[in-house]
Amino acid sequence: MRLLSLLAIICIVSLALSMNSEALTLNVCDYGAIADGKTDATSAFQKALDAATSQPGSSVYAPAGTYLIAGTIRIPASTTLKGDYSGPGRQKGTIILSTFGKGKSDGPGCIVMSGGSGLCGIAVIYPGQKAESREPIPYPYAITGAGDVRIQDIYLHNAYQGINLDGAHANSVRNVWGEPLKVGINVDHCYDISRIENVHFWPYFTLDKPMREWVQQNGVAFQFGRSDWQYCLNTFSFGYHTGYRFFRTGESKPSAGVVYPAGTTNGNFVGIGADKCVIGVDVEDCFNIGVSITNAEIAPFGKVEGSRAVLLRKGNTGNLTFLNCNFWAVPSSLFEIHSGSLNISACNIHEWAVVKKDSSCIIQTGGRLNVNGCTFNQGGKLAVLDGADARALFSGNMGVGPLKVINRIGNRAVVGKNNPRIEVSAESPSAKVSKD
């Protein structure tokens, strides 16, 4: 009997401990949040989030409604803030009106996440931002991530800067809509796989408004500094100056004894789109291991001076590959290569020189260029090849009319087995003539 009594006590204690260790779901309204869009709910949100830390894995729920947040909400580690927004697009469900950080682009913004935290189902709107203005008001990033964060089902109506993933190793970002005005998503100093999926940046806020031109001239939808094994799937941008920017970042020291090295991005980008942009893919620098872009669609449309679907700038040291991609509505030249390596394979080049009729499809002043197995839906000036260190190869391409290459790099250009034959105009004594 004593043994049975002891076992019963052990079971009761174990059950009690188990019940105490269960994750909590707390409601911000129980901590004083009022969803009237007027009463500052920052303190109520923070009290609920802090209370949730008593049990790791707990959640804080903000029911559908409009909450004024005049400060910064900090989501603790192993805690998730959840709302009722599920997209796609438009402000609805759980809406946060953010007023914090007006006039400043640095520092903490509306929501700051800790390592291992989550953010789901929230729409963020900046009521101080007016689309009738010619320029936006600076604000810090609406959401600042950290290592192992999960950001899902988010609407960023008119954030000056959207999501900052600097130092957010192993992050997961999916199902994001809106129109961040200056920068959509910033990825930097990430040394484990970063995943960005199903993101749609479109002029929800500035369409047909005076501020639209500013975003077209200054906005960057996605930018990548140092990111090892970056994965980007089904992302889209419309009406930004730059769709996708790659740059070399400097060293970062986020805390004492912690150093994030400088560097660039390598990774896999599938199903990405850049529509009505000045520059679709702008490579200031990328990793020589390579950036692979597959199934992309890039259409710059109406801009002429300096507009490019793809630009590899001088100083780039990396390799960029396009596979099975579509390019159209290119006002002047489609590709411009100054250094690094550009591989274009099995792509559909529908058109170029739509506005500036004498433009060549490709401008090369340096680096390596490999064009193979592509379909060209128009004839005309295909490439101008120049530069002391430039190398180029055109092979196995298909066209509908005569294509011409102006060769100023001699036998460092090889053209062969194209249908129809590509005409090579040798503008140097040693230029290699096509053997199609």
Overview of this structure, please?
Helices cover 8% and strands 42% of the residues. It contains 3 helices and 40 strands. The strands form 3 sheets. The chain has a 24-stranded parallel β-sheet that branches.
Work out the helix count.
3
- How far is it from the N-terminal to the C-terminal residue, by CA? 97 Å
- Mean pLDDT, all residues: 93
> What's the architecture of the domain at 23-204, going by CATH?
3 Solenoid
* Total strands: 40
Helix content: under 10%
β-strand percent reads: 35-45%
- Outline the low-pLDDT stretches: 6-20, 429-435
Give the full name of the CATH homologous superfamily of the domain at 23-204: Single-stranded right-handed beta-helix, Pectin lyase-like
Global geometry: elongated
- CATH top-level class of the domain at 23-204: Mainly Beta
The CATH topology name of the domain at 23-204 reads Pectate Lyase C-like
* SSE-based structural type: mainly beta
What's the layout of helices and strands?
Blueprint: H1 2-20, E1 25-27, E2 36-40, H2 42-52, E3 59-61, E4 65-69, E5 73-75, E6 80-82, E7 94-98, E8 111-113, E9 118-125, E10 141-144, E11 150-156, E12 161-166, E13 172-178, E14 183-188, E15 194-201, H3 212-218, E16 220-224, E17 227-238, E18 242-246, E19 252-255, E20 258-260, E21 265-270, E22 273-275, E23 279-283, E24 291-294, E25 297-299, E26 308-312, E27 319-323, E28 326-327, E29 335-337, E30 341-345, E31 348-349, E32 362-364, E33 368-372, E34 375-376, E35 380-385, E36 391-395, E37 398-399, E38 403-407, E39 413-416, E40 422-426
